[in-house]
Amino acid sequence: MARRRRINLHGPSHERWLISYADFITLMFAFFVVLYGISSVNEGKYKILASNLIGVFNAPPTSSNPIQIGDQARQIPITEKRLIVQPNQVAEQETSTTVPQEADMPKLQEAFEQGFEGLLKQGVMSLEGSEDWLEVTLGSEVLFGTGSSEPTRKAEDVIADVAMILGGYSNPIQVEGHTDNVPINNREYKSNWDLSAARAASVVRQLQEEGLDPSRLAAVGYGQFQPLVRNTTPLNRRKNRRIVLLISRSAVTRKDLDQVRQAQP
């Protein structure tokens, strides 16, 4: 008779992995239960939200011209027409604005000739220019008293008219003061430098008061050192006492202008 083999109940087990596997499955089950609980919709809150949204979209419009949504918006015939802008219409709109434009120098000179015909005939004002610049010269006796930088009543009217012509343009303007060679040394001015600079600044100040952009303006005093003619006679000295408005297409100095003149045939 065969002998039964004893089963060793205390020996090593080869199915221990089943315990870890069962724990893992239990944890995964719990994890998915939590996810489901989080993603479940609260039916009560959902109904409240839905009713509020329905009330908003069904509310009567508060505008006399409500904005249509969806296909209804395509029925408006003027929507696309307003977006069509022809190139020539853009050009017309740009030119009709009040933004100052760059001046055409010959046309600007023509405007001065028409506006100051009387002063030009009297020889008190003179004009000289080209395609790139315009030089307006005014005798100091029209603008200031002897040894003074305070504009006369006549000067205020003349400068106001000048500002009216220049107001529609954006070109830079350099105002120059010039004197004769007769020395000056009074309580206000120690030299002709001071007097010429003060007169130029006085004109610039009034141009600004008349509405010109101050960033366009510059004041320069040359004293007696840029004469038109030799200071040998009273008439010549009177010609040298002057205010010059140098109007150019771009920022230009007296040195630049002199170089241009010398280069001209």
Descriptive key words:
265 residues; alpha+beta; 60s Ribosomal Protein L30, Chain: A; five-stranded mixed β-sheet; 10 helices
Description:
The chain contains ten helices and five strands. The protein is α+β, with helices and mostly antiparallel strands and 265 residues long. The chain has a domain at 130-263: OmpA-like domain (60s Ribosomal Protein L30, Chain: A, 2-Layer Sandwich). It is rod-shaped, with a radius of gyration of 45 Å.
Strand content: 5-15%
* Oligomer type: single chain
Radius of gyration: 45 Å
How many helices? The count is 10
Biggest sheet features: 5 strands, mixed
Rough outline: rod-shaped
- Write out the CATH superfamily name of the domain at 130-263: OmpA-like domain
Find the CATH topology of the domain at 130-263: 60s Ribosomal Protein L30, Chain: A
- In N-to-C order, the SSE pattern is HHHHHEEHHEHEHEH
Total number of beta strands: 5
* Biggest sheet strand line-up: 1-2-5-3-4
Low-confidence stretches: 62-98
CATH architecture of the domain at 130-263: 2-Layer Sandwich
DSSP helix fraction: 40-55%
Instruction: Report how far apart the termini are.
Output: 145 Å
CATH class of the domain at 130-263: Alpha Beta
Class derived from helix and strand content: alpha+beta
On the 0 to 100 scale, the average pLDDT is 78
Summarize the structure.
With 265 residues, the chain is an alpha+beta fold.
List the helices and strands and how they pair.
Layout: H1 17-39, H2 43-57, H3 87-95, H4 105-115, H5 117-122, E1 125-129, E2 133-139, H6 140-143, H7 153-166, E3 173-178, H8 192-209, E4 217-221, H9 234-240, E5 242-248, H10 254-263
Parallel strand pairs: 3-4
Antiparallel strand pairs: 1-2, 2-5, 3-5
